[in-house]
Protein 1
Amino acid sequence: MTSVATTTLVIAAFLALISLVEPAAERLRLPYTVLLAVVGVAVGAVASFLLYTPLTSTFDAIVAPIVNLPFSASIFLVVFLPVLLFHAALTIDVREIVEDAAPILTLAIVAVFAAAAAIGFGLAAAGVPLTVALLLGSIVATTDPAAVVAILREVGAPLRLSRLLEGEALLNDAAAIVLFSVLVAMLSGGGEADIAAGAEHFVVEFFGGIVLGLVGGRIYGGLLPRLRGSRMAEVTLSLALPYVTYLVGDDVLHVSGVVAVASAALTAGVFARVRLAPDNWEYLEQVWEQIGFWASSLIFVTAMALVPRLLAGLQPEDGWLLLIAIVMALASRAAVLFGLLPLLSGLHLAQRVSGAYKLAITWGGLRGAVTLALALSVTENTQIDPAMKNLVAVLATGFVLFTLLVNGLTLRPVIHLLRLDRLSPLNQALRGKVLALSLAEVRDAVRETAQDYAIAPGAAAAVTTRYGEAIDALAREDTFETAISDDDRMTIGTVALANRERRIILDHHAQNTVSGAAIERLLRNTNRLLDAAKAEGRGGYAETAQALLAFSREFRIANFLHRVLRIGKPLQRQISVRFEILLVRRLVLGELARFAATRLRALFGAVVADALGETLATRAVAAARALDALRLQYPEHADSLEQRFLQQSGRRLLIARYHDLYEEGLIGREVFDDLEREHAAGRRHAAHHPPLDLGLRTEELIRGFGMFSGLGEVEVKALARRFRPRLLVPDEPIIRKGERGSAMYLISSGAVEVVLPNQRVRLGSGEFFGEMALLSGQPRQADVVALGYCRVLVLSVTEFRRFLREYPQAKEVIDSMAETRNRANAAGGAAVK
Ligand code: CMP
């Protein structure tokens, strides 16, 4: 057989093995990697035995490739590692972990250095050369969170905690691999550790990799719309991304390829989550889950199959070294979690994590495929001393085996011992309540089914009474009202409300009725609501809801760009997004009110439901007011958005209808595909904003003023050069009392309010303000604030002077108005228009 053929055969055999191990692990309730490791070692042992035993040579041809792998270990680093990390990073939603970015980064980097240093110096004290010891330290510094996260999810640990762990594991893989490559370079160079050069190398590789990944992920995001919604193309391009970034990083730019891959995946995920149709995103995730599974499983079996051969060179003192490494690793992880994490939460940079969870996380620090891939690659490095190579490989593999067999197998009992798998009294009571409610609903449904199918009343009663008994039993031990204080119930209710909001918004995303940018913002907002609800209950929720209506930072930047640099596009886009967000929010709030009145009332009682209903009503009023302010200025755009919304809903219904016809067998696949294709373009249409006309054309605005009604085309054009159009947003302060005057404003549409000592004067279309300070040279007389969205024409001081000289009639109007206002203000301020 050719070597390609043997390689393929070995891989195929391993794949077959993997497919059998996965369901077996499920059945035995063992962590999958643990069983895979055991089977891998067994296969390696049997193969070695058959190859070397003098008893038979019948199987030599079959087992030889397993013992002496026909492919080099670089296949793991180049082919499997990039996809492994890409998959791990793709599953992380950056937006969900931004608030924990500080602890994740610190934990990941500090933990890697702490582990590498602890293990390195520990082993060096036992006689291992320092650089080799550090190298081993870096290899086993990576953690594989899969097992512990799976169990934490199962026992209902806070989601934020598992996200923190996943984020940390990803970055510590990246940091450990960079450290590893720096150390390998040192060892291959034969030089001793030069800390400064090594540190610089690390920083360049790590941060260079992040930047490269950002660029790569961005390009991927930019190309997505060009793939016209083809899921095959989207996945294919995503498969190219890790390899391209990895190789460009490592071989061209000499920054860390693995870091680049991780950062590319995080970035690509941000774009793909909103730019892909939801089904396509799901498909992409599924394909990647499969690819990641293959990569990690193959690394596992292959490395494990080599274990018997590696362990053949095991010296008794290696056992001691392994023990030192394990103790040091546990100690350093515990030190970081118990020492650094509280420090970070003390600085409000991280959430608080209870001691029990910290212990569970320390114990759950299993090592996995990444450690094995690195260990394998060391065995093939020809520039490292063979004895050292062997030591590193033996210890690293031993380490992985230990964590899998000891920590992995005891993790569940440890979590039980720490009582983390027990529901809190609060959740316990909630569980009882949910169960009772659901059982009651099911009992009614069963009763109806019995009637529909004309089932004998006796048989039906036998079934329904059983439900009744269960419900009664639950009612007897119902501790919901007593175990949970009113405050707690209110908090749980508020959290449920925020969760529900998230779901509704995701539904809108799935139905493609709203643009990606609006969905993204809405989801971010609901995450804030959810966190506020969890941390501060109803009060925090209400406060955050109020804050969400304020103009976002992006909006304020866009407004600034428009005002100062006269760049209008961003503002146009922001207003359009705000429109959409308010539109969706109004719908969502309606649905939420119904949810509170029915489901929440049933679960939490009238008091909670009513209070939450009130909070929702306040939100609805505020949202409606914000929407009305926009609609007032841009009625056509509001109409067109609403129309688009309906159109998308209609399109979706139509496709659903086609689908039904196809399912019923009335039309064939070809017809269905053809009909669907016809409407596919419209689907994509929703991803973009319909253009919004801010209506800020200077000449049109000028013509709207009575003062200029007599002017001809040429004069209007000349005036247009003097005026600058500007959009004011609700509550925007335009003039502050006491400032020096810099411009006069003509209101083209909308209204502003002049805040005088005794009263407020409202000025509307056709009126002007800000003239007094310019005429008198005195400071501004009053604050002026925009009441809603207004279009104004701005005349700067210099243009103002020129304007008065050129247009004596206008000067007259302005002078006399200033005069009147002045007099009124001196007399104690009557409204003067
Ligand atoms: P200025 O003083 O430059 O800045 C504040 C502006 O408020 C002022 O110019 C006028 O344009 C406007 N203003 C001041 N007093 C009145 C008033 N009594 N009625 C209407 N507008 C006023």
Protein 2
Amino acid sequence: MRVDGISYRTIRPLADGGVEIIDQTQLPHVFAPLVLRELAEAANAIAQMQVRGAPLIGVTAAYGLALGLRRDASSAALARDIELLAATRPTAINLRWALERMREALMPVAQAERAEAAFALAGEMAEEDVAVCAAIGDHGLALIADISARKGGAPVNILTHCNAGWLATVDWGTATAPIYKAHEAGIALHVLVDETRPRNQGAALTAFELGHHGVPHAVIVDNAGGHLMQKGEVDLVIVGTDRTTARGDVCNKIGTYLKALAAHDNGVPFYVAAPSSSIDFSLHDGMADIPIEARSPREVTHMSGVTEHGEIVSIRVTPPQSPALNPAFDVTPARLVTGLITERGIIGATEVALAQAFPERVIQGILSGV
Ligand code: MRU
């Protein structure tokens, strides 16, 4: 997608052997590309959220593994590096999915050729992610076009949570892909962007990308969504997912569940943009079985922003003696999900619909635990 008129992807291999990412911890204040050269740097970029968003985490891990194999391509190193990368963030299943795919493809490859094969496969996965997100965009566009037609062309008001935009994937985004496609098709729309405390991925990242792409939007505080739904000011909710279970429970950024409850209470359609890489066919009960990442309390007690002089600072917003809790994700039960927008079409959030859409993944999930 475009930043200041230039098309970017969130990750790309460089001719000199490095892998370029955009340091998302600096956004929206500074657009800072950063080059990864070592496995440890890739692992750190994921853990510190210089890259984040389920699909991008998966692709970054694949490139990180390739960087590691360049130093040591033995089978022992491959296994060790996969475990190291898998431990960086526990919730988004794309990470495990990407690493297991790399393991399966690279184990049979001769040691001397492993690093090169790993870079090639990471590149393939990046391209696939772009194609998958574009397909999600095409399917979701139909939903938006339908609402637009019913409203006689008046702007379609879409609420989204966190950043499931192009910054969370390689390009297009998942939840934002239908939005970008509709915008490009000339459909009037307006996006309500949840700020998404504590790390403000909505306020910092989604607003940044929508703004640069010229999509009309407004940032709202996390607690405004229910009120706006009661007032009839939300036509549609589209969010992303970090892990969706075989029966359609959706794990996503903390606060998603509350939006789903409010949407349900107000008859607002609640859709989840779900690439198959984020579906975990080995789990059923999302509430019981998905590991929820607990992040540092400092993300709650402190906020960062930019001063009038352009300096990025962190300030404390809580009393120094108050502890904080920081569960980073929650699970929305399938019954609150109107539908899943996948690369193979829009389907119900049910075991049968998911199995019918992705039969090959059901078998794989049972065999491999992903
Ligand atoms: O903690 P983050 O910023 O990695 O969380 C990201 C989200 O929860 C996204 O909504 C999800 O990964 C879907 S991204 C296409």
Protein 3
Amino acid sequence: MKTVILEREALYEQAAGQIAGILTEKPDAVIAMSAGRTMLPLWQKLRQLDLEAVRLFQVAEFIGTEEHLTMRAMTEKNLLEGSNLRPENCFWLTEENYQEYENAIADVGGLDLAVLGIGDNAHIGFNEPATQFDSRTHRQKLTEKTRKQYGWHFGSEESTPAWGLSMGIRTITEARKIMLLACGEEKAQAVFDMLYARNDSIIPAAFLQIPAEVTVYADREAGAKL
Ligand code: GLP
């Protein structure tokens, strides 16, 4: 795992630069994209790139929420709008299609890149603690901590959905390259555990110690315990 710790602005600049490099080599790269607050400044930079041929797969989604509150809506509003990403090249996770998701990824040749954030409890996607390494795209019951984390988006922990859909750990770790972004002091323990905990299912992000090409981008606050 490569770790980059920088001031926030420089961090996003460098992460976007890595993606630009991947797109220079392969303009139609297949990218697994997370949503969430951490992604917003990155998306702002990605919108400047030529994304016309990019194939985008959503990493995780909430179940049973109003359409405008979905991760899909967040991604459409903040990444697709103002970019040249083509809606027909975007694959969204739904309760109807999640069992076919792995086939859809395989059909386009697998993931070139997975862009991840990290939960306060070190989840990746919605792979909560106790998710198996071998997991594929699945329905996931969300933990109290995750529902609390998303209170800002839904108004409160209680109004945050109890279930989500997520690419599995196996799906994510099969990506040819992985980058994970973490910002803010509330992520500091999760970042520390990701790098130093045993890679068992208690700390899902620690499974990222296994694949070869993983870069962790942390701002000074998220990297404070390293
Ligand atoms: C969520 C999402 C992840 C996201 C992470 C961090 O639960 N499923 O895709 O990366 O938590 O979210 P945020 O960036 O809002 O802190």
